[in-house]
Amino acid sequence: MEFEVVNLEQMAGFKANAEITPEVLLENGLINDLSMPVKVLGRGDVSVALKVKTHKISKSAQSKIESAGGSVELIQE
Predict the structure, then answer these.
(1) Which phi and psi angles does 38 have, rounded to 5°?
(2) Three-class SS string for the chain?
C-alpha cells in the first residue's frame, strides 16, 4: 500500500492545539492526494500540542506528539 508521507518537521508551523487532518495537510501543501492514506513519520520534533488524525503513524512520531501534550487518532478506512 502506498501512503502520502508527512514528517513531524513539516508540522512545525502549526499552532498549539491545531487539529491536523489529511484535509489540513492538503490545504497546507504537505500532501498532494486525499485518495491515498496518510502516514506520519518521526523525523523532526514538535514543540506544541497537536491533535493529529492520520491513517498510520510511526511509534516515534506518536511518542513525540504525545510527549508534547498532543494526541493521535487513527482514521479507520
Answers:
(1) -105, 135
(2) CCCEEEEHHHHCCCCCCCEECHHHHHHCCCCCCCCCCEEEECCCCCCCCCEEEECEECHHHHHHHHHCCCEEEECCC
Question: Which distant-in-sequence residues (6+ apart) come within 8 Å of 27 by Cβ?
Answer: none
Could you tell me the pTM of the whole model?
Answer: 0.94
How far is Cα of residue 57 from the mean position of the Cα atoms in its chain?
A: 8
Rounded distance, CA 6 to CA 30, Å?
A: 7
Residues in the chain predicted with pLDDT less than 50, given as ranges, are: none
